[in-house]
Amino acid sequence: MKKIMVFILSISLILGITGCSKKEITPVSRETFALGTIIDFKIYDKDQDKANKVIDECIERIKDIEKKMSANIDHSEVMTVNKNAGKQSVKVSDETMYVAKKSLEYSYITNGKFNLTVYPLVNLWGIGTKKARVPSQSEIDEAISNIDYNDVVFDETQKTIYLKRENQGIDLGAIAKGYVGDEIKKIFIENDIKSAFVNLGGNVMAYETKVDGSKWRIGIQNPLEIRGEYLGVVRVENKSIVTSGNYERYFEQDGKRYHHILDATTGYPADTGVISTTIITERGIDADALSTSTYLIGLDEGIKLIESMDGVEAIFVTKDKEVYTTSGLKDRFELTNEEFIYKK
Ligand code: ADP
Ligand code: MG
Predict the structure, then answer these.
(1) Which position among 94, 130, 239, 252 has the lowest Cβ density within 10 Å, counted as fewest Cβ atoms?
(2) What is the pTM of this model?
């Protein structure tokens, strides 16, 4: 089971529970399991029926997206594309097309470390499944030989995706949850929700502000501790906050940890000295893609990449317990755990 990395420090929530303030709204909360993770909703609305219906609608939408994009569902659109690799093109929904193209964009940006066609490698390692194991070098070489994002053919008019060679495959696991966050946000807007907070297993969507109009305070998970132990707090308004970490999904063999973010150029779990990366930006799909991407390219290149982008900020934690942030966070991020050093 995945750990939830980021959680909320909401004063309104605390007041709601203790009943200190009549003005505070107790949120409608729900936890559900989808996309291989726990999803936690909190909607702040006086109309509890409406808030519950909105959550129902969000869960329906999540299941719909999961059915299309999951690599763990046999007949998902993604797996149908993969099973037909080297054989024929496969019709997909507009949204699978959109998410796959986004993934391609980040494949270019990271020179293929982040890779739309990483599926053969993900499948080989099986991290997060019962068949997880360290593959042999020849198996890794074989998987890498099938990874090439230039072999994905998108047909915009036919709405199809085709992989040129057998044994190739696409994987949207690093980006789909971010997209889900964006779709949930659309539902909130359609239903005139004013304040909400959603945690999709470490992908947080802090919608608008707290009920009193102040910024959300989001705890950033301490990657060395269990869920809910945070190392710092960031203040945000209407943002996605997405963390990728080596503690999310992994197995251990001979005292070594093998985690689920695989460098598609080496074939091994990324090992740049970074143990978690957090991206803060408006759109969830970008936050998700970038948290995985920066995890893969490491601290120096990662900071450079994020600083070059408008409206995107990042927090990096290294295995030496150093914390680095991009310039836009210097007065919005507060380190609260003294075991770590904030390298401003
Ligand atoms: P999480 O799912 O824990 O939030 P990420 O967003 O970082 O974490 O995504 C990790 C998932 O992305 C893996 O489980 C796998 O499906 C996929 N993945 C692993 N390595 C890569 C890669 N190099 N490029 C693209 N996707 C990857
Ligand atoms: Mg990601």
Answers:
(1) 130
(2) 0.93
